[in-house]
Structures are given as C-alpha cells and as structure tokens.
Amino acid sequence: MSSARSRSESDPVRRALTAAVEHTRDAVVSIAAANPVILIDGRSGAGKTTLARELIAGWPLRGRVQSVALDAIYPGWDGLAEGVRTAQEAILRPHARGLIGVWQRWDWERGEYAEAHAVDPSLPLIVEGSGLLTAGTAPLGDIRIWLESPARTRRDRALLRDGDTYRPHWDRWARQEERHLVDDGPAQLATHVFAIP
Question: How far apart, in whole angstroms, are the C-alpha atoms of residue 126 and residue 190?
C-alpha cells in the first residue's frame, strides 16, 4: 500500500467526502432518470466543489454531466441571494421545463457580467454553491445535498484555497450564509445531509 493511500485513508475529511460521493452516486443510479439534477449546498469551505468534482469524475450514468458553480454567478461579495435567484430562474427552471438555460459568468476582477453559458436540459446537471437550497430551488432538484462542517475547519480550508482574496470578505459572506440558514433551513430541504469534519 502506498503512503499516499494511507494518508488519504487516515484523513477524516477525505474519508467523509469519499463516503458522500459514494452515497450520491448510489442515489443517482436509484432515481433512474436520464437527466437528474443534483443540488449541493453548504457553507463556504464545507467541500461542495470537491464533492461535485469527484462526482463528475466518477459519474455513474452513460454520457456526460454538466455542472455549474455558483461562484461563477454570484454578482460580487454581497451577491449570495441574487446568485441563487439567478440559478433558479436561468438554469434550474428552464432545465425542469426541458428548455435550454442561459447564464452569464460574473467577472470578479472587473465587477461585471461576462460571457454567457448554455445548459442543456437533456443532460444531467450538478449545481453547487452556498445558499442553493431554498423553497424555490428544492423542488427543482432530484438529489439535494447539505454539507455540514464546523466553522473553524471550513474557514481554514477556504482561506487555504483562496487566501488573501477571500480573507477580508469572510465575515461579510458568512453573514449572508447565516441569513440563508435562518430563512431557508437548507438542511431540512436536503435529501442527503453529510457531515464533513
């Protein structure tokens, strides 16, 4: 056994995310839909992007899966709720109706919208981002995931990932996530809740 494998197996975060991926793959297969929609929510640093990436890498159905990260849609550091509304109206509702959805990427450096992207309703779809599970989006997701993770480890992971770009905005973003928890109760809207240490 390699040392890399043993380190991975001894890492509780890695083990929890691997288990979450396996459970989600099983759920995708069990719903027997050609174009399922998976929604992944959780606070910053909980592991949403890693879960989505690994789910895509081992997608259990034939063909390809498309994904959208809300980080590409939020219109700036105060845009959590607006980004979720955009995802609901421009991506999830059209997908549910069998229509092509179109969303624009937010250019964080320029502070403005950039190029447009299309979402094919015939293909499976993974959408991940903080604030995603709401009363409006939940009915549009076949599998709805909430990742629960402690504040300290989330913060450490998020700042390791984004460093000085994110550090000055951590509290500002966290307040929007806290409003989401109170207003929307995302864990109660989830079909699956995974604890990530």
Answer: 14
From the centroid of its chain, how far is CA 190? 12
Distance CA 178, CA 56 (A): 29
Q: H or E stretch including 148? A: strand 143-148
Q: Provide the CATH topology of domain 20-69+122-195.
A: Rossmann fold (3.40.50)
CB 48 within 8 A of CB 56: no
Q: Do residues 81 and 129 touch, judged by C-beta distance below 8 A?
A: no
- What does DSSP say about strands 101-107 and 125-128: parallel, antiparallel, or unpaired? unpaired
Name the amino acid, one letter, at 48. Answer: K
Return the H-helix or E-strand segment holding 39.
Answer: strand 37-42
Q: What are the phi and psi torsion angles at 145 (to 5°)?
A: -115, 135
Q: Cα(first)–Cα(last) distance of the chain, in Å?
A: 25
Q: What is the reported pLDDT for 159? A: 81
pTM: 0.92
Q: What's the pLDDT score for residue 8?
A: 52
Q: Which of 51, 13, 180, 176 is nearest to 38 (CA)?
A: 51
| Packing angle of the helix pair 12-31, 48-57 (nearest 10 deg) | 50
